[in-house]
Amino acid sequence: MPSPRSGGRAEARRAAQGKGGGAADGGSGGRAAARRGAKPKKNVKKIVAWSAAGVLVLIAGTGGAIYYKLNANIKSFDADAIATDRPPEAKADADGNKPVNVLLIGSDSRGGNNSDLGGGEDGGARSDTTILLHVYADHKHAVGISIPRNTIVPIPSCKLPNGKWTKGGNDLFNAAFSVGGSDSGNPACTQNTVEKVTGIRVDHTIVVDFNGFAAMTKAVNGVDVCLPKAIYEGDINPNLHKKGNLVLPQGKQTVEGQQALDYVRLRHGIGDGSDIGRMKRQQAFMSSLATKMKKEGLSPTNLLPLADAATKSLTVDPGLDSADKLLSFGLSLKNIDMHDLKFVTAPWRYRTQDANIDLVQPDANKLWDILKADQTIDGQNATGQQPDAAASPSAAPQQAAPSTPTAPAGDASNASIKVAVYNGTLANGLAGKATDLLKGAKFTASTAGQGPNTKYKTTTIEYSSSQKTNAEKVAALFPGASLEPSSARGISVIVGQDFAAASGMGTTTGGTASTTPGTQTPPQPLPTTVTNDARSADDDICANTTYGSGG
Asked: Which candidate, 404, 407, 425, places its Cα nearest to that of 494?
């Protein structure tokens, strides 16, 4: 493992704990000097760790000689913690082609040696880097979807270390990984949350911590990155209150170990200082790492320590809990061309009521839909086979679709009533339709995403004790809806199959909304706000590495 950089987070911690590393020990100062005499604040830093994309390529190169060593390293989480109410598995086609969805989580666990690499002083673990990697059925294309850590999402019931289950509720996306407060985190809760938000079955989950990330970047002799401006200690640690020493110069450079961590965790001093910009640099980093490993491969001299260090830092789902399973999966990715490995960020927007983020609908659902249909973000078919010819118009009788409910004339006072709308079915875009209906009646409505589950037969309206009268006004738009008091604030509408039928969106077949039994609704094209922001792994490393202005 790399030695902590002089003046870095590790030195600051040692100074604060009386373990040396500050000026008294001949250190150069840096963060330790900034923190000397100051009382540490808890929960100030939100740490971003490496997501596990590089591990996927790494495993593909390992051989049988190190099988037993790797097998002994691998840790897996409890299968019983995975939700039972899950989206359906993708079905293989006639040629056996099947897409694979992999959840990649970067953990800033404070356990082990991670604290010396910047894991923070507090206990527990966070998942400030999370990517849903969709490997298409042809296994020649893949796309990684970054999910902003401070997105407000519905977190389902999750299993705690003591065996009990939480009640669930809306919270920051990265809070799912922290459920239970253990140093190893709660990857099953994050997996459950992603499945609930996207309606996509997660086939595998891989978690890697700081140790694994630092070891991998050193084992490949560094990764090429690029920065639009120089970064100083004061940018890495705003509490320093001065510029400090140079950490990363402007322009192209090769980083490894602590410097690589600084790059992927960097937020301040560049762009608008947001997590959105940080995710762009992480996507650039993963693209560069994947490209290098694809091009150069792994030499016998560094393969064993690389694989050994990486697997020691891995936590995986039960489906990848042995070396042969990891090897088989990794080898299945070898034919992905770097131009066809894409990275995008889930459609997002800042919330008006706080500094957090909401997913933009219906754009986010369109993204999930194209993954379910195994189409690339630019509309290519990547199922591994050409689809059957469309049936002729006379093949099935045409049926008139029910008319969409129409909003009555809105009362101006409705504008003061805020309503969050959730989809309680698998009918894509249904929450958006309900949101439009509410807006037509002058309510202040927003689409909040997927509901607690996808089996709501009847639309349900949940309300806090002070909102009963307002909830009844909302219910007038949804004939037959169920009114239920809730401990949550405000009013939530969870649209059910009754609203889907009334809106002409049919029933669900095989997990996909359909207007004709047995046929799937083609996904709608993605907006240019998503496609234009996508990164290919072979893009210029200096392009698209920041967001906003300032810094």
From this structure: 425
Q: How many residues does the chain have?
A: 551
Measuring CA to CA, which residue among 78, 73, 311 is closest to residue 209? 311
Alpha carbon distance 28, 261 (integer Å): 20
CA pair distance 215, 212, nearest whole angstrom: 5
| CA distance linking residue 229 with residue 249, whole number of Å | 7
385: which 2 tokens?
């086979």
Using alpha carbons, select from 150, 533, 490, 518 the residue that is nearest to residue 367. Answer: 533
* 462 backbone dihedrals φ, ψ, rounded to 5°: -100, 140
Q: Is the pTM of this model over 0.85?
A: no
Residues 99/134, Cβ–Cβ less than 8 Å: yes
The values of phi and psi at residue 161, to 5°, are: -55, -25
User: What is the pLDDT at residue 438?
Assistant: 92
Question: Which residues fall within 8 angstroms of residue 195, CB to CB, at 6 or more apart?
Answer: 83, 86, 87, 201, 202
Say what the pLDDT of residue 81 is: 94
Tokens of 288: 């560069």
What is the DSSP code string of 17-82? TTSS-SGGGT---THHHHHTTPPPPTT--------THHHHHHHHT--GGGHHHHHHH-EE--GGGS
Q: What are phi and psi of 507, to 5 degrees?
A: -105, -170
Q: What is the rounded distance in angstroms from the CA atom of residue 147 to the CA atom of residue 141?
A: 20
Contacts for 44 with CB less than 8 Å, ≥ 6 apart: 239
Please report where in the chains the tokens 């140790």 appear, as a residue. Answer: 211
10-residue mean pLDDT series, the chain (551 residues): 44 42 40 41 37 43 56 85 90 81 81 43 66 93 94 94 92 93 90 95 90 80 93 89 93 94 88 88 92 69 61 83 74 84 94 90 93 88 58 38 51 87 84 89 84 85 90 93 85 92 62 40 81 92 86 52
Name the residue with tokens 């401006």: 229
- Strands 223-227, 482-485: pairing is unpaired
3-state secondary structure of 70: helix
Neighbours of 78 (CB within 10 A): 14
Q: What are phi and psi of 362, to 5 degrees?
A: -90, 10
For the record, the structure tokens of 122 come out as: 């507090």
